[in-house]
Fold ATP-dependent (S)-NAD(P)H-hydrate dehydratase.
Amino acid sequence: MSAITEIPVHLPKLLALFKTVVPKLSNNKYKGQYGRIGVIGGSLEYTGAPYFAAISSLRVGADLAHVFCHSNASAIIKSYSPDLIVHPVLDCADAVEKITPWLERLHVIVIGPGLGREPGILKTASNILKLCLEVKKPVVIDADGLFLLNDNYDLICGQRNVILTPNVMEFRRLFGEEINAARQKMSLLGDGVVILEKGANDKIYIPQANEVHTMPLGGSGRRCGGQGDLLSGSLATFFYWSLQSNEPNPALIAACASSYFVKKLNLAAFEKLGRSLLASDMVKEIPAIFQAEFEKSDSQ
Ligand SMILES: *[C@@H]1O[C@H](CO)[C@@H](O)[C@H](O)[C@H]1NC(C)=O
């Protein structure tokens, strides 16, 4: 197997390209056309993760965000925000049947934030993933959604429009420690799966092309919980937009843009709060950072 080609992401080019992908706001569109995102996750222990993913998908510009969670979590998630639509379904015996009619109305599904590791819930989540893949729904798989892939790796092999967002530990658990073995395993994925490995420098693997696109350092040294959820949520909306554009490599564009964006959010909040910064502070930075980085000026 030949060496993996490392490609440093050229930021000015990326930003210029991504600006063309961001849809122009217009009065001719109806509600939902800028994106309808679904988040599968949320348990008794973890209610923040699905909230952060869903709210960031909205704050970057999606029109609607649905959270499909365990019934133990739904009232709590609703209480965080009236902007989210929350379905207490994951612990129902007929969870998949309940979610199926919603799927066709959603553009991208994020599987994993706050899902937890209860075997029954993981089984349900893997059935939902199967269904998404069957109907060719674009998916972002994060956190405990990646955990369920450890025993179900075949599910995503050869599929299209799948983005995985592991942190370093999740990456190792999924692909192993040894780079050649990892590449071997990655090569089974085919040309429709992209991996965004989160770290000090985020790395975006395109297994089929044997390429890894590396993002520059960014953000601060402050790594509080919830930042990965801001990434998966904004990535979902960006992924939908990139798929709508006619650009080749929509997953790569969306992954690079969301990686860059979350580091910028972190830095902006860090400048105000230093060590005290929390994921909810980063949410507050979304409007200004999005405007500054991704909105076209009137003359463009
Ligand atoms: C969580 O949900 C289960 C049903 O799936 C229920 O039996 C249990 O009482 C709930 N726990 C809490 C703390 O709400």
User: Anything to note?
Assistant: The beta strands are 5-8, 36-40, 64-69, 85-88, 108-111, 139-141, 162-164, 193-197, 203-206, 211-214. The two ends are 44 Å apart (CA to CA). The chain has a mean pLDDT of 95. Residues 40 and 111 are 5 Å apart (CA to CA).
